[in-house]
Amino acid sequence: MLDDLTDRGLHPLLAARWSPTTFDPMFDLETTQIELLVEAARWAPSAGNSQPWAFIVGRRGDDTHRRLVRHLAASSRRWAPSASVLVANLAHRYVADTDWEYSEFSLYDLGQAVAHMTIQAQALGLSARQFRAFDRSGVADEFGVPDHWEVTTMSAFGLVPSGASSPAHPPAGRSRERRPVRELLWTGQ
Ligand SMILES: Cc1cc2nc3c(=O)[nH]c(=O)nc-3n(C[C@H](O)[C@H](O)[C@H](O)COP(=O)(O)O)c2cc1C
After folding, report:
1. Of 17, 135, 142, 183, which is the most exposed, with the fewest CB atoms less than 10 Å away?
2. Interatomic CA distance for residues 51 and 38, integer angstroms
3. Of 75, 56, 64, nearest to 154 (Cα)?
4. H helices of 27-167, where?
5. What confidence tens digit (pLDDT) does each residue in 97-144 have?
6. ∠ at Cα 180 (107, 183), nearest 5°?
7. Selecting from 3.40.109.10, 3.40.50.2300, 3.30.1330.60, 3.10.450.350, what CATH number does the domain 22-160 have?
8. Residue nearest to atom 9 of ligand 1 (CA)
9. What pLDDT does residue 168 have?
10. CA distance to 40, 117, 123, 128, per residue, from 109 (Å)
11. What is the predicted pLDDT for the residue at 14?
12. Residue of minimum CA distance from atom 31 in ligand 1
């Protein structure tokens, strides 16, 4: 599938991206790599350039990481702690008619910033899996996130261990089916 998509001109960073649930538990990201992930988010477009995003970044082994891991759901606890970095993604909440700095598009904008991070990770030879299987209010309480910020998702970044799969090829049997293009195009009929 990857070869077919790249032959047709889809950018290799997009064609090769997939979300692993196995990360090399010995691999650490360089500080400069983590800075680049945040930089990629920083340069995402946003409504009115409001930049309604913030991130809690934990490196495996540090205190922030330990505090994030505490709030993982049973399903993500099986794989996420072994990623090199966990990032909690926060969006600024919007209050209609009182909030001129931010907009009702903050979740849209945050998603786009996280997509930037994900593709930047891919460009660095890393992988990412975004996930919502954690206690969002638990993370908000843990880190004193004020009410006008919403803890939305987390992202796990790291290296896929060599072996059964490679960063460019998801393990055989993993379903990554996509709806056909014709179903994505609204014709108005
Ligand atoms: C907002 C969001 C929430 C997600 N939540 C979870 C999750 O809780 N657990 C999980 O294992 N994967 C989660 N995923 C990963 C998706 O299942 C995955 O992206 C999807 O199956 C498509 O696969 P691909 O990223 O390999 O193309 C989430 C992804 C997004 C964007």
Report:
1. 183
2. 13
3. 56
4. 31-42, 63-69, 74-77, 106-123, 136-142
5. 777 778 899 999 999 999 999 999 999 999 999 999 999 999 999 999
6. 70
7. 3.40.109.10
8. 131
9. 56
10. 13, 13, 21, 19
11. 96
12. 130
Query: Does 78 sit in the ligand 1 pocket, CB within 6 Å?
Result: no
Helices (H), the chain: 2-7, 12-15, 31-42, 63-69, 74-77, 106-123, 136-142, 181-184
Domain limits of the chain? 22-160
| 8 pLDDT tier (thresholds 50, 70, 90) | very high
Instruction: Kindly report the backbone phi and psi dihedral angles of residue 40, in degrees, each rounded to the nearest multiple of 5, phi listed first.
Output: -60, -40
Tokens (6 digits) for 116: 């930037």
| Token reading at 19 | 């979300």
C-alpha 10/C-alpha 127 separation (Å) is: 18
Return d(Cα 45, Cα 43) in angstroms, integer.
Answer: 6
Please state, as a whole number, how many other Cβ atoms lie within 10 Å of the Cβ of residue 164. 10
Tell me how far apart the alpha carbons of residues 41 and 55 are, in angstroms, rounded to a whole number. 10
Which residue do the tokens 């004020």 mark? 146
